[in-house]
Amino acid sequence: MEIPQGSIIILVMAEEKWEEADFLRSRINSLGCRGIILDMGLTGEPAGPCDIGRAEVIAAGGIRQADEEAVKDRGQRMPIMIGGGRNKVKELYLKGSLSGVISLGGTTGTQMGAAIMKALPFGVPKLAVSSTASLKGFASRYLGTSDVTLMHTVVEIAGLNRFMRNALSRAAGAICAMKQGTEMEPLDSEGMAVRTMIAMTHFGPCEECATAVRSGLEKLGHEVVGFSAAGIGDRAMEEIIESGSPFSAVIDLATGGVGEELLGFSRAAGPSRLEAAGKKGIPQVVSLSGVNFGSPWKYKYKPEYESRKKYRYDSARTFIRLSEEELYGVAAKMAEKLNSSKGPVKVLVPLGGWSSVDKRGSVFYDKKLDSIFAWELKKALREDIGVIEVDADLESPLFSAAVVDSLVDMI
Predict the structure, then answer these.
(1) Which of 169, 317, 341, 377 has a 20 to 30 A CA-CA distance from 311?
(2) The domain containing residue 125 runs over which residues?
(3) CA 331 to CA 141: how far, in whole Å?
(4) Considering 157, 184, 211, which residue would you say is the last residue of a domain?
(5) What is the pTM of this model?
(6) How far is CA 354 from CA 45, 204, 291, 308, 322, in A?
């Protein structure tokens, strides 16, 4: 079947929830969009006709029908359908046949649907309609760094009772509105293409600095896209840059995710943190907010942490100062990553404190440990990587101005 341009793809295990998917398709069509059902089923025959059948999905994954039929185990069939589904939606997107994706399911269906949606780039409407969306850890585990929107139906997706018809009608309205919103504000619009786009990491303790930097760059005609450096947003930034984003430069204010990954703390940002821009040769201005303290998981909290300086930031997070030994390790890891950069790098060190919680004069400030880290990092960096020391705290106007000036010199 030739899929019309701009269609909305409905991902469903059609042996279980075809009736609900068909109702959703009719609601999408009634709103002026075109709904297309893709069967990602695992066992049994689909309960009704699908626009993109299981065999076509399997073929898109490069699996022969005979090989697929030999796999009887449900768990083993899942990666086959996910792989084929990912390839199929990417193919449709590149042809212009896909303008949005919506999935229907419980735990398995949502896992599969989200995995397939994540093959599509940021900005393509993605909506997972799930009866199990509120399961503990579900969103963080299956959505991760993607821009999938999760809708909790509360009731099981089983039959067209009045609750389900209402939920599916709302889902149809949501995905069609998301498609319309994308058309109103496309990522590749002319206005955005003209302006230099800069990625920047944010973190609560450096928010004042980030706001000042963004304001300064916007006055110069640049566009700044922020990413929360709490372990997910900064990881997403790396993935977006790696995939070929339009970013011309990176301001990495909050690089604490490198050490958190190394130490197994809660803001761990993955093994590839602080690498994507370097691989792409994109100019980087790097600073140190959150590098000198950590956020250990409560269940991994060690008795020796009690003797360290601590800062209770909110009800969920208590920061502890890193030890001298830990700082040596983090400095070595950051230097290793920055030394592999193909583009220009500048590291800015605020001598008066690296965030709002450890300014000079505060109980959390530790000049000795900060100096040890800065010295070790500078010693390990390539000679062509400039290290600029600013005699001010990171939240000061002097430091934010230094960040803006450093970046402007490189782009």
Answers:
(1) 377
(2) 7-184
(3) 30
(4) 184
(5) 0.80
(6) 60, 12, 8, 18, 13
